[in-house]
């Protein structure tokens, strides 16, 4: 069973917490079959939410639009940030990252962590790691995965790295965070048992180098696990999915163009690219899993409905922050143009007949003995 936070708790504050504390205590959902889902399977919709899919006049209630956005304030920092229309973005020697680094996005990152853990049978990783002594979390973000994995393996040393200092101060004794750019040459000792990489889409210029460095810094027999989203918004409604002019299509195409222009692809989770580069780095025993994740509470299945509600909250909090840097800073759009596109995207996602979803990809593999 997995414990998830209430929607009220998620909307009111970031989910950073002290070791041993939990805000995942208000709802229990059986996630025992989650890993058996296939991205090829169609997700059945809930008629009480969607209504009659073939009748545009038959509109049931929308769950996504009712979710309240976080109002957490942005804290000051001595580190270098860029601020665009009220949203903070982190800069480093090699990266101006497209994700915001303010409390609103950090809170959303923790919501995504909750529903991904739920999809993974309440596991923090899928790689068959046994009694690890040293773990590296590359691009740790809010630090929530590193904190949880440190709690799970109290005898392991856990290091989380990021270009942004947004991690909490209250952490397990065996966990530490470092300001470090994963795109530079790594200076760690080459003795990790497990290296975890998640949600670095749009932030890496050379994924092949990232995977090669991961390979080099693992012990023989050590494991990599890489988790990334395909940024294309899909739909289980054929009318939406087949509409080449729909905002879902325009949105992902703009991100692809921005990533290509900046030299930091948004296509890493497409066309088998993750698997290919990980295998080319020297890894064996490669496994790939791919899940459909609804946006909003339109799914009929109770687990997917709850996952979709949390994903809907995450997306609702994050859309403007996602779009601002790639479109305004890279593609040169005006703030008003970005606002218009975000409004169109938000409206489409909030429409329960859109049946929107993302796909998440997990690849794990082993360094040969």
Automatic annotation (TrEMBL):
Pfam families: Methyltransf_23. InterPro entries: SAM-dependent_MTases_sf (IPR029063). This is S-adenosyl-L-methionine-dependent methyltransferase. The keyword Magnesium does not apply. GO terms for molecular function: methyltransferase activity. PANTHER family: ABC TRANSMEMBRANE TYPE-1 DOMAIN-CONTAINING PROTEIN-RELATED, METHYLTRANSFERASE. One of its GO terms (biological process) is methylation. Belongs to the methyltransferase superfamily. LaeA methyltransferase family. It comes from the Eukaryota. The keyword Chaperone does not apply. Keywords: Methyltransferase, Transferase.
């Amino acid at each position: 069973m997995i414990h998830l936070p209430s929607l009220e708790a998620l909307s009111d504050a970031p989910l950073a917490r002290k070791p041993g504390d939990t805000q995942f205590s208000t709802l229990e959902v059986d996630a025992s079959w989650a890993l058996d889902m296939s991205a090829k399977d169609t997700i059945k919709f809930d008629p009480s939410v969607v209504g009659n899919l073939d009748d545009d006049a038959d509109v049931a209630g929308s769950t996504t639009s009712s979710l309240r956005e976080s109002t957490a304030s942005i804290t000051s920092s001595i580190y270098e940030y860029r601020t665009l229309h009220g949203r903070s973005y982190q800069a480093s020697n090699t990266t101006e990252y497209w994700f915001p680094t303010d409390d609103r996005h950090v809170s959303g990152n923790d919501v995504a962590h909750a529903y991904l853990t739920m999809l993974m049978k309440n596991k923090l990783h899928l790689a068959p790691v046994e009694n690890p002594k040293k773990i590296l979390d590359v691009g740790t973000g809010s630090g929530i995965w590193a904190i949880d994995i440190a709690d799970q393996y109290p005898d392991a040393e856990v290091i989380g790295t990021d270009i942004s200092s947004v991690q909490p101060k209250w952490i397990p004794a065996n966990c530490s965070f470092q300001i470090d750019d994963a795109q530079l040459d790594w200076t760690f000792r080459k003795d990790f048992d497990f290296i975890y990489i998640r949600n670095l889409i749009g932030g890496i210029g050379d994924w092949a180098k990232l995977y090669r460095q991961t390979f080099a810094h693992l012990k023989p027999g050590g494991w990599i696990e890489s988790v990334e989203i395909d940024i294309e918004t899909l739909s289980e409604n054929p009318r939406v999915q087949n509409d080449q002019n729909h905002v879902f299509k325009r949105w992902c195409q703009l991100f692809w163009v921005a990533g290509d222009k900046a030299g930091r692809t948004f296509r890493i989770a497409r066309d088998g690219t993750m698997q290919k580069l990980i295998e080319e780095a020297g890894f064996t025993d490669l496994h790939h899993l791919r899940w459909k994740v609804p946006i909003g509470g339109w799914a009929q299945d109770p687990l997917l409905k709850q996952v979709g509600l949390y994903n809907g909250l995450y997306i609702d909090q994050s859309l403007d922050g996602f779009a601002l840097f790639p479109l305004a800073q890279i593609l040169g759009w005006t703030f008003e143009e970005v606002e218009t596109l975000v409004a169109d995207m938000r409206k489409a996602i909030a429409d329960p007949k859109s049946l929107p979803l993302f796909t998440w990809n997990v690849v794990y593999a082993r360094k040969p003995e």
